[in-house]
Amino acid sequence: MTTTAPAAPAAADERKKSTGRFHGLMIRPEFGAVIAAIAMFAFFALIAPVILQPSSISTVLYGASTIGIMAVGVSLLMIGGEFDLSTGVAVISSGITASMFTWFFVTNVWVGVAVALAFSLGIGFINGVIFIKTRLPSFIVTLAMFLMLAGLNLALTRLIGGSVSTRPISDMDGFASAKVVFASSLMIGGVSVRISVLYWILLVIIASWVLHRTRIGNWIYAAGGDEESARSVGVPVVRTKIGLFMTVGFCAWVLGMHNLFAFNVVQSGEGVGNEFLYIIAAVIGGCLLTGGYGTAIGGALGALIFGMASRGIVYAQWNADWFQFFLGLMLLIATVLNLIVRRRAEAS
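-> structure tokens emitted (348 positions)
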């Protein structure tokens, strides 16, 4: 009688090895930002307990939202492999456009809001088209746009309004309703929350859904990771990148309208330098300068960290000069953490 030897168990395919849920969380782009946000909150809660009060939480969230709204668009653009250095002045340009158009033509405020939306989307479209047509680095294209917008903001405001700030429009038709939409506050859980915070959260949710649940999200990651390979598999790189620049323009419009209706006037010289804050928030949140990696949630966490640091230093009664040091330190640490996380993700 012959016997058949039992078959040897098949070797497990190492490509299917389970890495575990915790390991999966560790290699996500925003993991470092989550740890940093928790650590910073705990730190300031210990040395400045006033940050736990409802009014302080409201202030921190509001400060984070003014960075976070733009960080959403900037994060998407950076994932797509490009930069926009005109974002800071583009926010101011949008507010100036709405205000000056309304005041000069004595029209309903909502008409000025619509014109500002068209203007902001147009700036994004122009940035994208020039970048695509010339193949110049987006850094150069948007730096040129930054200089042009900064000059136009100051020159046209002085030419039309005779001052470096726009004229008040609080007595114009439609201002009250526009203020409710763009600059009102709501009580949520005993905390007064500015509506800009809700717009920030909504933009993060939409951007995250687009990135992880739609074909457009795949296009964004592909265009930022390897543009030529993306083209070879049919990704519409041109449309994707122009759309990303226009998304940044839309975010600039949202924040510009909030600034206008929150303060009634817009100072033409403001916004310079804010573009770096938006990029820093995106980098702290896990977006790589080389593109193809990052999340919208990470950019939101980066903005939240910025908000906690800027107010926490004040609540701790430290010299505000230290804020720039902490900002640079956070950027350096975040960049190193992002590099480590990406290497682990690639190794997995």
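The CA atoms of residues 48 and 317 lie 8 Å apart.
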